[in-house]
Automatic annotation (TrEMBL):
It comes from Gallaecimonas pentaromativorans. PANTHER family: STRINGENT STARVATION PROTEIN B. This is Stringent starvation protein B. One of its GO terms (biological process) is positive regulation of protein catabolic process. One of its GO terms (cellular component) is ribosome. It comes from the Bacteria. Pfam families: SspB (PF04386). SUPFAM superfamilies: SspB-like. Residues 119-146 are annotated as: Disordered.
Length: 146
């Protein structure tokens, strides 16, 4: 029997789906983050019991990026602008402030393997992308018709 294949995580997809659904229903999305996880960049003075609740509504954040590996945005805390980074593995839940509608994220084997160092995040950026092939000069194929 072949070894079980480690599936990619579904958390980024669920996060984006719930975020859009909450906005569609005029609700305010809040994100619960485990602030004790590696890679989390949040104002520690707002962390309670190892977690922080962040309002990620469009009027509360700037430059929101719900990426494959993390959530990154800018926000103000006490009038001070801060850059927030929350790796997907650190996300606990997304819910609506108004009524609590949302979901708690289950732990996934992918994130367990990541924490245990069995796999690594793929680092990619503009410098890693191969340069697109340059189109070669082709002879024109149109003819003048008289």
């Amino acid at each position: 029997m072949a070894p079980e294949r480690l599936l990619t995580p579904h958390r980024p997809h669920l996060l984006r789906a719930f975020y859009e659904w909450l906005l569609e229903n005029d609700l305010t999305p809040h994100l619960v983050v485990d602030a004790t996880q590696d890679g989390v960049e949040v104002p520690q003075e707002h962390v309670r019991d190892g977690q922080i609740v962040l309002n990620i509504g469009p009027s509360a954040v700037g430059n929101l990026n719900l990426g494959k590996d993390d959530v990154v945005f800018s926000a103000r805390f006490g009038g001070v602008p801060r850059r927030i980074v929350a790796p997907m593995a650190a996300l606990v839940a997304i819910y609506a402030r108004e009524n609590g509608a949302g979901t708690v994220f289950e732990d996934e084997p992918y994130y367990e393997a990541l924490r245990e160092g069995k796999i690594a995040l793929e680092e990619s950026g503009p410098e890693d992308d191969p340069e697109p092939p340059k189109p070669g000069r082709k002879a024109p194929f149109l003819k003048v018709v008289k």
